[in-house]
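G.,

No rush on this.
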Amino acid sequence: MNKQRREQIEEIRTKIEELHGDLESLRDEEQDYIDNMPENLQQSEKGEIAEQAVSNLEDAISSLEESEASLEEASQ
């Protein structure tokens, strides 16, 4: 792989790292929201939706981590 393509991959990887951080912040905010809900609301549909959002964000974070690792390997 030439230098130009490696640099492009590094730029993309950097953007993914930023998105990764943004998603982690959103996940943490949503988890704080759940943690600060009264217990009866945590067990309600609203709480379940928030829990599902956290789970989906964690899945997205994992996918980004895999993408970062693949791009790192590709640029070597």
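When you get to it, here's the other one too:
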Amino acid sequence: MKTRLLTLLFVSALIVACRGDKPGAVSLEQAELDKLVVELMPAVERATRLEFRETPRAGIRSRDEVRSYLLVKLEEELPAERLEGLVTAYRLMGLIPDTLDVGKLFVDLYTEQVAGFYEPDSAMLFAVEGSDMATLRATLSHELVHALQHQYLPLDSILSDRADADRLAAAQAVLEGQATVAMVQVLVPDVDILGEDQLWRQMSDELAKPQAGLEVFNNSPLVIRTGLMFPYLQGAGFMRWFLLNRGSEQPYGDLMPKSTEQILHPARYQTGDDPVRLRFTEDSAGVIHEDTFGEFETLVLRSALAGITAVATDLPIGWGGDRLRVYQGDDGPALVWYVVFDQPNYVENFTNRVVHGLRRLKRPGYRVAIDPVDVGEHPGVRVVIAPEEWDRWADLPAVVVDSSSS
């Protein structure tokens, strides 16, 4: 589930572990915050290899003020109709239980423990009143990167684009991955976090572990938990590769990755293996949700259907592109999902190892159909989860390659 997750405290927990700092709440004045921002800016510039064009504005907010603000932003990012569509798709795929109140879960997640955030609309970064110094320095180091990115990128328009969730997730991975790597470089400058493989694995393992004080996050369904982690964990891995291999460039503009496949497998990014864009051929009558799913969420689906709590991302599955729709009907919602692949041999692997488990869900009154299809020159699979009496079974919605998309 793609939303613009605000910085969670697991990043500062990592820094405390690295530096050995003792947490302790501080009483922060505006002048002290402004001074800390200025002090951190040169290190952020070195880590990102970008220069600030102006000093970011910063402010202090109480936890109650932050909570009220986040609830408003959550409503903007996930309005009721969009949330309903996303939740319906996940429920039909067995990724979340029917009884889960996802709206309440996201409110709890967004307000569980927030130490600070950057707001593109106002171009300001905010620190939460009463944070300990280790957390405050970690948060500002991370959020200053977003402020710097905004001086080179239209962050607000990038983050508000809802046409392609997988592409949005890739962009978020660059933004959060760059901020996460830079944060570590700023706070532990004596450690070669990029060059030391063992140290990088330790940091990645630390980020992936359940985090103290984040009980709502730790107990969330796999698809939500890993989706929120993806920009930080896999995004940091991509940015490490980018800095080591193309450090004289920035992954912005035309160099921004276009899919989670490119984030997970930078070799695909390097060779220009862009996703195939698919488009449904019929109108959107009855459609309550339409989007891409992407390679990462496909891997999450594989793990969830197998009852595995970890998501293996090391080997490509040959994902080439996808598109799904959720229709609302008299007998219940229906999902149609098309996935195309780079080579025909990936079709059988996808069917047997990923979506075969959908047949075991046994939703009462529902039928699951998984069939090989070709979309243009691309081998693929069509997955349909729909009521047995769905009136579109005889003439299923079709897709074509959308050559107009870039």
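Residues 3-24 have pLDDT under 50 and may be disordered. The first strand starts at residue 57 and ends at 61.

Enjoy the weekend,
O.
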